[in-house]
DNA sequence: GACGTTAGAGACACCGGGTGCCACCGGCAA
DNA sequence: TTGCCGGTGGCACCCGGTGTCTCTAACGTC
C-alpha cells in the first residue's frame, strides 16, 4: 500500500478509488473528481495548452484512456457539473410564478443559481479565470453557454407565447447571458467584489437600457 | 497545360495561381481565395467535421502544408477577412463625432459595417450558417468576437473616460454584440428578412431595456 | 546568358487531442 | 465453478497543426 513502484497492476485503481468514494456515491464520481482536481491544478500552474492529457492522467494516477472516459474532453475538465448548473437554472425558471415579470424572473434565477457558498468561491475563481483567460477554453465556453441560452429563450418564449426562435426570446437570452459573463469578468478582476452584487449591477444596467448613453454625453 | 495527370511537378502551382491573380493583386491572395472557396463549398456540402484538410487542399489543387500557410486553421477558412471587418468597425467608431450619443454611435457602426452588397449576401449567408450551426465554428467565433468586444469597449471607455475593463464599457460591448449575433440568427432563419432591419430591431429592443418584460405580463 | 537570391510550394516527421477496439481484472450472482 | 459486468489500461488509428528540409520558378545583377 505504499507509493513505491509495486507492480500492483490494474487492480490498484478500483481499490483506491473505492476508498475515496464511499461517502460520495460511486466509483465513477470519485475518479472523475480526482481527474478534474488534477487538471485544474496543472492548468492554473502551467497553462491550459502546456498541459497534456498524459500529464493529467499521471497526476490523477490513472491512464489517458480513462481520462477521456470520464471527462470527455480536455476542456470539459474545467467545467465540473455544468449540466447540473443549467438544469438548476431551468428548474428555477420553471418554478417562477407567472405573477413576477419575465425579466426580473430571469435575473433572479441567474443570481440564485450563481449564489455559491463562500467555501466554493476559490475554486470558482480558478475555473472562471481559466475559462475567461485561455483562448481554447473561452472558445469552448460558447458551446456551453448555448445550452443556457436555449433554456432562457425557452422560458421567455413560454411566458410570451412566442416561438423560442423569435427575436425577443433569443435576444433576452443572449443579452442576459452577456451581462452575466461580464459581471463574472469584473468580479474576477476585483478581489473584493461580490459576485451577486456584480450580477445585479450588470442586470440593472441592462434593464435600464444604458440611460446615460442614449442622450448627449 | 491540360488537366490530365501530366507530371508537371511543383511548378504547376505558381503558373495557374499567376493567371488567377493579376487583376486581384498577389499570388498569395489568389491561392488563399481558392482555398477558402473550396473549403466553404465542401463544408456546406458535407459538414465541417466531415471534411479534412486534405480534402480541401485537393479540391483547391494544392497541398496540406500550403493550406495552413495561407489560412492558419480549419476554422479560419470560413471567416475570410474578418480582421479587416473589425478594423472597419474601429475606424467608424473613431470617426464618429462626440456629438452623437454613445449607444447610437455603436449601433450605427454595427449597421454600417454589416451593410453588404446584395451580391455578397449569399456567401454571407453561407458563412454565417456554418458559424452558427457547426459547434466547432461556434466555439471559434468567441475568439473572433472578443476582438470586436475590445474595440467597442475601448470606444465606450474613451467616450466615458472610464477604464476599458470597467463594467459599463464591457457590458455595452458584449450586449450589443449579443444583439448583433441574435439579429444574424433571425435573419438567417428568415429568407425574406433584411439584415439591417434585423440589426436595428434588436438594437432598439436592447436600448429600451425590454419594456414589455419589466412589468406585469 | 550565367549567376545568386528569394518567395512560394511540397514532402516528411512529429506532437497532441480524441476514438474504437480488445484484453484484463475484480466483484457478484446463479 | 461458471458466467456476466463495470471499470480499466494498452494499442492502433485518425486528424489538426507545426517545424524543417528541399525544390523550383521567377527576378535582378553582372
Q: How would you describe what is shown here?
A:
Chains A, B: Keywords: DNA-binding, Transcription, Transcription regulation. Chains A, B: It comes from Geodermatophilus maliterrae. Chains A, B: InterPro entries: Homeodomain-like_sf (IPR009057), HTH-type_TetR-like_transc_reg (IPR050109), HTH_TetR (IPR001647), MftR_C (IPR041347), Tscrpt_reg_TetR-type (IPR023851). Chains A, B: This is Mycofactocin system transcriptional regulator. Two copies of one chain form a homodimer. Chain A is mainly alpha-helical and 217 residues long. Chain A has helices spanning 12-20, 27-46, 53-59, 64-71, 76-79, 82-95, 102-113, 121-133, 135-160, 167-189, 195-208. In chain A, helix 1 crosses helix 2 and helix 2 (27-46) packs across helix 3. The longest helix of chain A is centred in the last third of the chain and has 26 residues, at 135-160. Chain A is globular, with a radius of gyration of 21 Å. Residues 1-24 of chain A have low confidence and may be disordered. Chains A and B meet through helix 7, helix 9, helix 10 and helix 11 of A and helix 7, helix 9, helix 10 and helix 11 of B. The structure holds a DNA duplex (30 and 30 nucleotides).
